[in-house]
Amino acid sequence: MLCVHNKILYLCCMHKEESIDHHLRATWQAVSKMYNEEALSHGSTMAMAFVLLNVDYEKGTPSTSLGPQMGMEATSLSRILKNMEDKGIVYREKHPKDGRSVLIKLTEYGKEKRAFAKATVLRFNNVVKQHVTTEQLNGFFEVVKTIEVLIKDNVIFEKAKV
Q1: Would you tell me the crossing angle of helices 46-54 and 108-131 to the nearest 10 degrees?
Q2: Is residue 22 a part of any domain in this protein?
Q3: What pTM does this model have?
Q4: pLDDT tens, 52-81?
């Protein structure tokens, strides 16, 4: 049944199982929990693993570009990097071309942790690919990209033009 309230058309009595965002959120929470449990068993967190996978293995990554690259706020990232430094996973080095910037680099221990994080992500991807067809996976990626574009272009909550 369609309802109108304040010029907004929406579906009345929508069940959560019919809601796209419910499935996105529930699935991401399950994936996040799975990764955090795996990381915890190795003295890490999913957030640390995400940092490891986004730091350039050889050259390091400027700290200022790491947050936006990961979609993470600077304060959250700073806390994670400090923890990773304390554990001997990463270190900071002055950027050779920009004295105002700092590169985040992996220690040898950090490179080992990165290899484990990468293997974990690859294992997840391989298991999922064993249970879905290429067409299903391509359809999933297409839907997710469409949602990202709709959000980026502010289509979903766009103000009605009066």
Answers
A1: 100
A2: no
A3: 0.78
A4: 999 999 999 998 889 888 888 888 899 999
